[in-house]
């Protein structure tokens, strides 16, 4: 993370700003006025002396540069790396300064009707049943100075690991870390095979060895800025409403309580923030979707030039697949692999997708869209068939 800040274009905000709605209202006002979202560094967070808060660092160009991946061949490069091997090592953590309370951290209250302050940009680390480490993003409500209420979607590996662990013991150890290598952020966002260690995947994606700290808890990268350790208990409390990435508030849930046992930070710590539904979070979602679908389709022998999950469709619900050989078979494979995406378009188009859709014959597929176990409309797939030959005009 610190290396990425050296080559990111960062706008410094030196005036005092409140973590309760102050940061997110500042960011929202900026976007509304200027039409874009730069990387911000807030240097004076009220109630959190010594902390810097970085917002919107996880832009695509910064992520790819951090991973040393060329933009034009990013999906092919990441796919090749993910199929290789990664080196994970152990070394002392740089987060050595104890903090007594979550109240000392620059944790944000994001939207006016959120229940309170939330962790949104911390990566959760849990030990899987087979002894591998599983990383994931989970929102966690700050319910007290040393208490969190964590929401884990029932579709996530983390939900399964915690539920199974609580059948065997009264609590499940968890580590929540912020900052460190950006490869961990991509690995945590990706729905990786259950038998692949997430830190191993991060080392592969990053293209070099990954250092983890020495601890009796689930580990964190040694370069992490903030490390929170504790246990997930069987006790449940209410969290939410919370302004989700789709732009609406989710309903309250009854979710597991985390008892925080240790909080450590680096010298002169920076906290990486994430404003749900804005560029950074959507970029992580988009890039991991593109990477995993590209890897799947090419492993089946399909030729794929590029895959795009546009941020305007929340990085998840529209997939544009560019290939020199559009086919219904490719479309079927894509729709079977990514069950969450609502619309797929397979074409040869480069810049003029809408023109190609207007001119050439289309083949389509429909499938039920299932959300939270209920049918909500249809999933749609379209293949643009360029086999028809036209007598094109010269001008």
TrEMBL record:
Domain 3-octaprenyl-4-hydroxybenzoate carboxy-lyase-like Rift-related, chain residue ranges per copy: 99-278
Native source organism of the sequence: Bradyrhizobium barranii subsp. apii
Pfam families in alphabetical order: UbiD
InterPro entries registered for this protein in UniProt: UbiD, UbiD_Rift_dom
UniProt protein name: UbiD family decarboxylase
Coiled-coil ranges (or none): none
A GO molecular function held by the record: carboxy-lyase activity
Domain of life, source organism: Bacteria
Keyword Ubl conjugation: no
Record keywords, A-Z: Plasmid
Keyword Transport applies: no
Entry's Gene Ontology cellular component terms: cytoplasm
């Amino acid at each position: 993370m610190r290396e990425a800040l050296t080559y990111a274009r960062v706008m410094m905000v030196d005036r005092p700003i409140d973590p309760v709605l102050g940061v997110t209202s500042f960011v929202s006002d900026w976007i509304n006025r200027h039409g874009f979202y730069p990387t911000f560094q807030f240097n004076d967070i009220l109630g959190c002396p010594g902390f810097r808060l970085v917002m919107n660092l996880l832009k695509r160009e910064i992520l790819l540069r951090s991973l040393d991946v060329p933009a034009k061949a990013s999906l092919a490069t990441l796919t090749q790396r993910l199929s290789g091997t990664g080196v994970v090592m152990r070394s002392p953590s740089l987060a050595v300064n104890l903090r007594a309370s979550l109240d000392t951290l620059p944790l944000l209250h994001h939207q006016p009707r959120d229940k309170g302050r939330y962790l949104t940009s911390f990566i959760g680390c849990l030990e899987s049943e087979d002894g591998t480490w599983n990383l994931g993003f989970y929102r966690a409500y700050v319910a007290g100075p040393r208490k969190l209420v964590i929401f884990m979607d029932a579709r996530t590996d983390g939900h399964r690991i915690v539920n199974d662990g609580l059948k065997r013991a009264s609590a499940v150890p968890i580590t929540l870390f912020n900052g460190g290598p950006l490869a961990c952020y991509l690995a945590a966002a990706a729905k990786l095979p259950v038998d692949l260690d997430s830190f191993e995947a991060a080392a592969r994606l990053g293209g070099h060895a990954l250092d983890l700290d020495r601890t009796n808890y689930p580990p964190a990268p040694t370069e992490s800025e903030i490390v929170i350790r504790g246990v997930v208990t069987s006790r449940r409390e209410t969290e939410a409403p919370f302004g989700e990435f789709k732009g609406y508030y989710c309903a309250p849930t009854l979710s597991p309580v985390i008892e925080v046992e240790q909080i450590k930070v680096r010298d002169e710590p920076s906290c990486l923030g994430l404003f749900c539904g804005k560029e950074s979070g959507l970029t992580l979602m988009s890039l991991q979707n593109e990477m995993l679908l590209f890897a799947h389709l090419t492993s089946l022998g399909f030729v794929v030039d590029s895959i795009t999950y546009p941020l305007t469709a929340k990085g998840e619900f529209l997939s544009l697949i560019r290939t020199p050989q559009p086919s219904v078979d490719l479309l079927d494979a894509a729709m079977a692999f990514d069950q969450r995406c609502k619309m797929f378009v397979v074409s040869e188009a480069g810049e003029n997708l809408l023109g190609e859709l207007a001119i050439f014959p289309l083949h389509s597929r429909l499938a039920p869209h299932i959300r939270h176990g209920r049918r909500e409309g249809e999933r749609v797939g379209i293949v643009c068939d360029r086999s028809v030959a036209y007598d094109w005009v010269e001008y």
